[in-house]
Amino acid sequence: MLRLCFKELFEWKIMQTDPNPANFLYDLKKERLNLIDFGAGRQFEDRFLDGYMNVIHGAFLENREQVMHHSRDLGFLTGEENKEMLHAHYLGTLAMAEPFKITPNGLYDFGS
Q: pTM of the prediction?
């Protein structure tokens, strides 16, 4: 699912934005996830994708300044947020980057 998400965004620059499980079909024989509903597709421009990648990269590095700068630039933050909301945004962004962290066995343990 994560691979499909990033392929949609950064290769195809279009994403199916309705994550309803009924919009996906897993082929056991081919071990492949198929996306079967494009009704809620949305295209993304390079400017957004570049900024979004910078947000993800900042979260991976745990670089608060990078995350917050690019989040403001993309409009994820308005400048009207209080300290608690800014902190919650940063923590949520760190959680988004967690699967990219390297574990002792080299793979992220989604089960934990």
A: 0.78
Q: Classify burial at 16, counting beta carbons within 10 Å of its beta carbon; exposed 0-12, middle 13-18, buried 19 or more.
A: buried
Q: What pLDDT digit, counting tens, does each position of 79-101 carry?
A: 999 999 999 999 999 998 988 87
Backbone φ/ψ region at 9: left (φ over 0), alpha (ψ -120 to 50), beta: alpha
* 42 vs 15: CA distance, rounded Å: 5
Residue where the block lists tokens 């082929």: 27
Q: State yes or no: is 18 an active-site residue.
A: yes
Query: What is the domain partition of the chain in residue ranges?
Result: 2-43, 46-100
User: Choosing from 18, 37, 50, 109, which is the catalytic residue?
Assistant: 18
